[in-house]
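Data deposition worksheet. Section B asks for the primary sequence of the deposited chain exactly as it was used as input, without tags or linkers unless they were present during the calculation. Section C holds the resulting structure in token form. Section D is free text for depositor observations; keep each observation to a single sentence. Incomplete worksheets are returned to the depositor.
Section A, Depositor: J.P.
Section B:
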Amino acid sequence: MSVAFRRESDEEHKEPRFELPLPSGPNLVTARGQDLIAERIAELEAQLSSADAASAEDIRRSLRYWQTRRTTAILTPPPVDGTIGFGSVVAILLHGKPRTVAIVGDDEADPKVDALAFSAPLARALIGAEVGDVLPFAARNDAIEIVSID
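Section C:
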């Protein structure tokens, strides 16, 4: 039989599994973010010990991602000079509506609870501002007013 018609194994026909993509830029984390990374690694290690062969590779892949994030993490405290920066919790008026946002690392970000990655457009607009500043955002010159910084 010709080699062209032989099937060696099912492995050669599977889709390649790539590593999980890492966000570009520095891996800034808050103390809470560092704890979340450690918790996620512990969860994955516990899952790995009881996983079957099929799911073990996916768990190992996620574990490599989180171990890399732990290794490259840069613990960054919030600024103490009264300006908004990484780790700040900020009360703002966005288009006249009150909102409180936290500026955090990529892995800690959760827009549903207003934890914004420092690379998000709103977070970038806020960084460097002080209480009382009025900032442009989304094509409006007076879209954001800074109420308080924690």
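Section D:
The mean pLDDT is 91.
The radius of gyration is 22 Å.
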